[in-house]
Amino acid sequence: MKIPSGIPGFDEVLNGGLEKGRSYLVKGGPGSGKTIFGLQFLMKGLEMGEKGVYVSFDQHEKEVVEQAKSFGWNLEDENFHFIDKSLEMDVLSSDMFFFDFDSVNEIQDFVLSITRAEELKDAERVFIDGIGVIRDAARNPSIHRRITSSIIHFLTDKGVTLLISDEHMGEIGKEVISYLTSGEFVLERKEREDGEVFRTVDVVKYRSGHVHLGKHYFKITRDGIVVYPIIPVAKVRKNERNLISTGNGEFDAMLGGGIVEGAEVFISGKSGVGKTNLSLLILKDNDIRGNTGVMYSFEEREEEIDRRYKELFDYKPSKIVVREVSPYGMNIGEFYNMLIRDVSELSPTVVVIDPVNALERMTFSNNELIRAMLILCDQLKNQGITLIQTYEVADAADVFQFTGGVSYFADYIILGRHVELEGELVKALAVIKNRFGEHEQTIRILDMKSGEGIILGDPLKEHSGMMSGVLVK
Q: Strands (DSSP E) along 132-211, which ranges?
């Protein structure tokens, strides 16, 4: 039987929550969020009318209560109980320094002081915070294992769902306590070279059924920990694929007739070559057909997008939703879940990310970005949603580049460049890739005129040199 963990987003990772009557280990360094994790686990139980017990080996009750208050949690509930073992483990206030083979009675007395505690009677959820203190006092791994095992088995045999926190010391999944619990979750705090901080929860082990193992981004918010899993959620699969127009006949011709529904379109180029306007063109035609489109804009406000539509296209959108997003303070899991929620609530047929470079600032590594985008693209493709990504090329104007690490799985790749033609600097457009068939192999001059929109010239069949930045006959 599954029970909610109390951590928003985490139950989705666990495919429903924690198994009732099992034990789970949450590990991490100082400040990683272990205590908050445990408090949320207990608070969820209190909401459901369950008896919860907090057993502390390193924090006093006053400290825990104050921490709970900082998140708006009230522990003055008749079902909440606190067992303070920190004083017994304090060398300044206790006679006990170490457990040893010769101190069998001392070991038994210690275990019984926990298992026979009146507060544990009829408890349904128990959080043991800082159990690593026992490891330090035991000195010997065998004694540590026996003490910890006795406490865990006593509680789980009574149907208690047990969460245990421990410092991250040795190899993940290889410590004594790792073998005694049904699941292990590691909380990590990573700081990138530019100072951006990311938090992840790594589901290392889970013994009951299929879960989404691996690392998932989370944040510590005013309301506690929130997990943002990047996992497949779409159940609808659209097999029929129609060819849709971009809204410009010449652009359609370059792409081989238009864009296949559910395709991923990658538009690359330096600033000012028309990447955003090409995206707005596709969204506009989608809007005219009566469909919803969503644009995630990282550089321009909604007012600026509306102004572009008015001045360039002389058009007022009716079903285009613009999301103003900042990559700072946001992780890729948060963005993924926002987009998936929009897909569920708005049912768009076209989604634009402008520019996709911004997502690089939401991850700790490029590999994490590629993994997230693979899952996202698959989600959208399954539902027949066309994804448009613009990519800002940072190299000099005479350097050719169109990939951004995530472009290799694109269905269409479009390259825009500033090029010199007969002494004049113009914008040029070319289609590099069409996964679905033939596409135009030539270059066209791109122009943008107020009130007329995007204008593409005839194919420049007698010219070459786009990749070098100078068109010649």
A: 161-167, 183-191, 197-206
Q: Which helix (H) or strand (E) holds 346?
A: helix 332-346
Going by their DSSP bridges, the two strands 52-56 and 470-471 should be labelled as: unpaired
All CATH 3.40.50.300 domain ranges of the chain, comma separated, are 2-228, 243-471
Phi, psi of 360 (to 5 degrees): -65, -25
Rounded Cα distance between 16 and 153, Å, is 24
> What global pTM score does this model have?
0.88
Tokens of 463: 């010219």
Q: pLDDT by residue (tens digit) across 156-191?
A: 999 999 999 998 766 665 677 888 999 999 999 998
The contacts of residue 10 (CB under 8 Å, 6+ apart) are 201, 218, 225, 227, 229
| Spatial contact of 413 and 255, defined as CB atoms under 8 Å apart | no
Close Cβ partners of 418 (under 8 Å, ≥ 6 residues apart):
270, 272, 273, 397, 425, 426, 427, 428, 469
- Could you tell me the fold of the domain covering 2-228? Rossmann fold (3.40.50)
d(CA 311, CA 93): 76
Q: Which CATH number fits domain 243-471: 1.20.140.10, 3.40.50.300, 3.40.50.1390, 3.30.70.330?
A: 3.40.50.300
- How many Å apart are CA 315 and CA 309, to the nearest integer? 5
Task: Kindly state the DSSP code that residue 418 receives in the 8-state scheme.
Answer: E
Backbone angles phi, psi at 135, to 5 degrees: -60, -40
Strand pairing partners for 321?
294
* The two structure tokens encoding residue 361: 């600032």
Cα-Cα end-to-end distance for the chain: 73
Element (H, E) at 146: helix 141-157
- Tell me which residue has tokens 């991850």: 363
Q: What share of the chain is helix, strand, coil (3-state, %, to 5)?
A: 30, 30, 40
* Single-letter residue type at 67: Q
Name the nearest CA neighbour of 2 among 211, 157, 200. Answer: 211
Is the CB of residue 400 less than 8 Å from the CB of residue 279?
Answer: no
Q: Are 20 and 7 in contact (CB under 8 A)?
A: no
Distances (CA, A) of 293 to 333, 357, 431: 22, 21, 23
CA dist 175 and 232 (Å) reads 32
Hey, how many other C-beta atoms are within 10 angstroms of the C-beta on 461? 9
Q: What is the pLDDT of residues 14-72, one digit of tens each?
A: 999 999 999 999 999 988 999 999 999 999 999 999 999 999 988 889 999 999 999 99
Please list, residue by residue across 344-364, b when 16 or more beta carbons sit within 10 angstroms of its beta carbon and e when fewer do: eeeebbbbbbbbbbbbbbbbb
